[in-house]
Design goal:
Layout: H1 24-28, H2 45-52, E1 58-62, H3 68-81, E2 90-94, H4 97-111, E3 121-123, H5 124-135, E4 146-147, H6 150-163, H7 173-185, H8 195-198, H9 205-219, E5 221-222, H10 224-237, H11 239-248, E6 251-254, H12 262-272, E7 278-282, H13 296-300, H14 302-305, E8 310-314, H15 322-332, E9 353-360, H16 361-377, E10 390-394, H17 400-410, E11 414-416, H18 426-439, H19 444-450, H20 460-473, H21 477-486, H22 492-514, H23 519-529, H24 532-537, H25 544-558, H26 564-571, E12 586-590, H27 591-594, E13 599-604, H28 615-637, E14 640-654, E15 657-660, H29 665-669, E16 675-678, H30 700-710, H31 714-722, H32 738-746, E17 754-757, E18 761-769, E19 772-777, E20 781-786, E21 790-792, H33 793-796
Parallel strand pairs: 1-7, 1-8, 2-3, 2-6, 4-5, 6-7, 9-14, 9-16, 10-12, 10-13, 11-12, 13-14
Antiparallel strand pairs: 14-15, 17-18, 17-21, 18-19, 19-20
Helix pairs in contact: 2-3, 3-4, 5-10, 6-7, 6-9, 10-12, 15-28, 16-17, 18-19, 18-22, 20-21, 21-22, 22-23
The protein binds a DNA duplex through helix 5, helix 10, helix 27 and helix 28.
DNA sequence: AGCCTCCTAATTTTT
DNA sequence: TTAGGAGGCT
């Protein structure tokens, strides 16, 4: 059993030092101690209204960049400072850990002290875990249940699908997990799935859902959706428990309310039903997660749910220029059923949103690269910007590639946000499975995962034997394995390997309970003794060193926790991996990932119908889908502080086919008075033609400026450095750009050459295609790089083979 | 167990 | 086009 004796979380804790000591009688009369509230001074009237309306339902409609977090955190500070609530009586929910962390920090700043005593500030999921551990038995779980990640979930579902004799090719597990997730998002238990939905997944969806939930119970596990669903179920069935929490959570605050799904909505509504002290903050115009169950309806319906609710609109924007706001407003105006907000700003001046069409996606990437460098130098009419201040926001991650390729070519540092999370990586999951088994030998999923990782000669047959023995004896797989070893059921190499594994598992478990070593040492030992570390050290693929690195990081992360259990409990919910790198970099990410962020300069490429708005979204969800796409456009534009650049291409490579594209309908929704149409520099004789419907007249001055800039750009300089200055003499500013490319052909390489690249380090030339080289880099793996950015390793001091 | 070939699908993603 | 998974073959 793990440590969840947090009953103290509900004990009245000593109010913060600065909190008032007002006798209850006076409090009941509405008298509170007059106390300074300097934090209120920095608020605008709307924010202040939202902050001071402490009691009763409040809907804070906070547009992008209107100081939402400030209002929310100040409200919490105010609740504490006025003595309306103790820190542990405030339930404040966010979606991400990042948001929760930021909120904690900011409240602490406002109050001038750390907020240790705010145990109920966190994500929906983390709060639900805490609650569910206290009441697990009510839904057939033990309080030390494990939380499955998507991978475990899919493996489990796959077993069920195979067992049900369903063709898993036509009906893959991932599809089923999507269906079940959707049901859980709607707070439907298997019994509650309406008949209309029951036909899902070849007519066997509900049945499999049933089986899945049963299986989870046996495994003493639940998935992410269950955390919410179980709590809603418990609240609905056990009035006494609900009452208890309704009393304890005297004030409820919700961030990003437009992103809540039905389960979260019900959860909140149940908890708020008594006192109705609920403050929801959100922006219907930024609802972009409908596809994963978010219901914009929740925010649109707030006033109906909570009659007499106070609605406060935060519309003064502190982030963007008037033109950017105007452009965003023009686009979002196309949506119906909005609560209606219009952002405004005090700020004067500012550039219009820049719009440009390109010949194709590569040209677009090339142009963006040059713009980034120009802005870095400050030759776009602005003070020089750091690369950290610039971001490229794309609709779909495959768009990133063109930019990455281009930036690698010109040596422009970039970072990609998104991609696989740290704890989703193969090696991290494997390591975690070992840790899970050390904690509990009942964890069958963990056992299945690592039984033959590293290879122990245990194939499908061996695993089936173990499973059979476990089932026959009604025990866990680890026990089944033990029996298999004792009875000598598995012969040869596999038998030996399994015996070692079982012995190891026992030893680790014993050592963990005896706490002879620290948990960090134990973890290291587990990874070494199991042969897992060796497994990657022997692996010669280019990824192996990185994986070992990650394992080290994992062990390091352990240091921050009391013990292995504590770590495992948290890691399933937390652990965003932001390995901070000090180097200046442009950020590339999806529009979804950009929500909540802001950058002085933002690029929004790929505004083409079908890509953005996404065809699929429109096909699947029709007008609803299109409106969500439009909100995405709105989110994108409002990320920009001073420079917002929208672009599209006339041709794009889609699944290896060149397709001609039409500009996004959102382009035409941009109000003309807020847009500056740029003409692409004619360097490639490109330029966007009649198809765009745009006037195509551009400024000659701009064009010339671009040309001249190209030779002062950091990329150009870097390139010269990379080529050891060889090209410097021949290429001077003002010469035709084509020459640069010709120059590249001058450098010659042969297969097998040891070479050096500024970003990728040392490598070996594997092949040559025109001016591009196939290089197997020692650290970075295989890449295609234009030869002019490569120098022979001997010149750089590396010892050739 | 490991390698090879064929097939299919291809947005967005937190917890 | 390409990546990843499944199934088959050695």
């Amino acid at each position: 059993m793990s440590d969840f004796d947090d009953d103290d979380l509900f004990e009245p804790i000593e109010p913060a030092q600065s909190a008032p000591k007002v006798p209850l009688s006076q409090r009941a009369m509405g008298i509170s101690a007059p106390r300074p509230a300097p934090y209120l001074d920095g608020l605008n009237p709307a924010q202040r209204e939202a902050v001071e309306a402490l009691d009763g339902p409040v809907l804070m409609l906070a547009g992008a960049g209107t100081g939402k977090t400030k209002a929310l955190t100040t409200r919490i500070a105010h609740l504490l400072n006025t003595g309306q609530a103790r820190p542990n009586e405030i339930l404040s929910v966010t979606f991400t850990n990042k948001a929760a962390r930021e909120m904690k920090n900011r409240v602490a700043n406002l109050l001038g002290q750390t907020v240790e005593g705010m145990p109920w500030m966190g994500t929906f999921h983390s709060i639900c875990v805490k609650l569910l551990r206290r009441h697990a038995e009510l839904v057939g779980l033990k309080s030390n249940f494990t939380i499955l990640d998507t991978d475990d979930q899919n493996r489990l579902l796959k077993q069920l699908i195979v067992a049900a004799n369903i063709d898993e090719k036509r009906w893959p597990a991932r599809l089923l997990s999507g269906v079940i997730d959707n049901w859980k998002n709607r707070a439907w238990t298997p019994a509650q799935v309406p008949t209309g939905d029951a036909s899902a997944f070849n007519g066997q969806g509900v049945d499999l859902y049933h089986q899945y939930q049963e299986r989870l119970k046996t495994l003493n596990a639940c998935d992410f959706g269950d955390l919410l669903l179980h709590m809603v179920t418990i609240f609905q069935r056990h009035d006494d428990i609900l009452k208890q929490y309704q009393t304890w959570f005297r004030y409820i605050l919700v961030d990003e309310y437009q992103d809540t799904n039905v389960a979260q909505y019900l959860w909140l509504r149940l908890l708020a039903a008594g006192h109705k002290n609920i403050c929801c903050v959100g922006d219907d115009d930024q609802s972009i997660y409908g596809w994963r169950g978010a219901e914009v309806g929740n925010i649109l319906r707030f006033e109906a749910d909570f009659p007499g609710a106070k609605v406060v609109k935060l519309e003064q924007n502190y982030r963007s220029t008037a033109h950017i706001l105007g452009a965003a407003a023009g686009v979002i105006r196309g949506n119906e059923g909005r609560l209606g907000k219009e952002l405004w700003t005090d700020a004067e001046g500012g550039d219009k949103v820049r719009l440009i069409g390109h010949w194709d996606g590569n040209e677009e990437a090339r142009w963006v690269g040059e713009e980034l460098e120009a802005m870095q130098r400050g030759t776009r009419g602005n003070a020089p910007l750091s690369l950290d201040d610039m971001a490229i926001l794309v609709r779909a991650s495959h768009q990133m590639r063109a930019f990455e390729d281009r930036f690698l070519t010109i040596g422009l540092p970039y970072r990609v946000i998104g991609g696989p999370r740290f704890y989703e990586r193969l090696e991290i999951r494997d390591a975690m499975a070992y840790f899970r088994l050390a904690v509990s030998q009942d964890d069958d999923l963990a056992f299945e995962r690592i039984v033959n990782t590293p290879r122990r000669g245990l194939g499908d047959k061996a695993v089936q034997t173990i499973q059979r023995l476990a089932r026959q004896n009604g025990v866990s797989l680890v026990e089944g394995a033990r029996i298999a070893v004792e009875q000598g059921e598995i012969k040869g190499k596999g038998g030996k390997g399994l015996a070692d594994l079982v012995i190891g598992l026992d030893r680790w478990h014993k050592q963990m309970t005896e706490e002879a070593d620290t948990h960090v040492e134990l973890a290291e030992m587990i990874l070494d003794d199991s042969g897992y570390t060796a497994h990657w050290m022997n692996d010669k693929t280019p990824e192996a060193p990185g994986r070992l690195e990650n394992l080290k990081e994992l062990v390091k992360a352990l240091e921050g926790f009391e013990n292995l259990q504590g770590f495992l409990e948290h890691v399933s919910l937390i652990m965003d991996n932001e390995s901070e790198n000090s180097e200046e970099k442009v950020t590339i990410m999806t529009l979804h990932a950009a929500k909540g962020l802001e950058y002085p300069a933002v690029f929004l490429p790929g505004w083409e119908d079908g890509l953005f708005p996404s065809q699929r979204s429109m096909d699947e969800s029709g007008l609803k889908g299109l409106e969500e796409e439009r909100r995405l456009a709105y989110v994108g534009i409002t990320r920009a502080e001073t420079i917002c650049t929208i672009s599209f291409a006339a041709n794009r490579l889609v699944y290896g086919q060149w397709q001609s594209q039409l500009p996004s309908r959102f382009v035409d929704e941009l109000p003309e008075e807020h847009v500056d149409v740029l003409t692409p520099p004619g360097l490639y004789g490109g330029g966007y033609g009649a198809a765009s419907g745009m006037s195509g007249v551009g400024s000659k001055i701009e064009e010339q400026a671009l040309r001249a800039d190209a030779y002062n750009s950091p990329g150009w300089k870097r390139m010269q450095e990379n080529t050891g200055g060889k090209l410097r003499a021949k290429s001077s500013p003002g010469e035709a750009r084509g020459l640069v490319i010709d120059m590249a052909a001058v450098s010659s390489f042969t297969q097998g050459n040891r070479v050096f690249h500024q970003k990728f380090g040392y490598g070996t030339v594997m092949g040559i295609e025109g001016d591009k080289l196939d290089i197997e880099f020692d650290k970075a793996g295989a890449k295609k790089v234009i030869s002019k950015f490569i120098i022979l390793a001997s010149e750089a001091g590396d010892v050739p083979f």
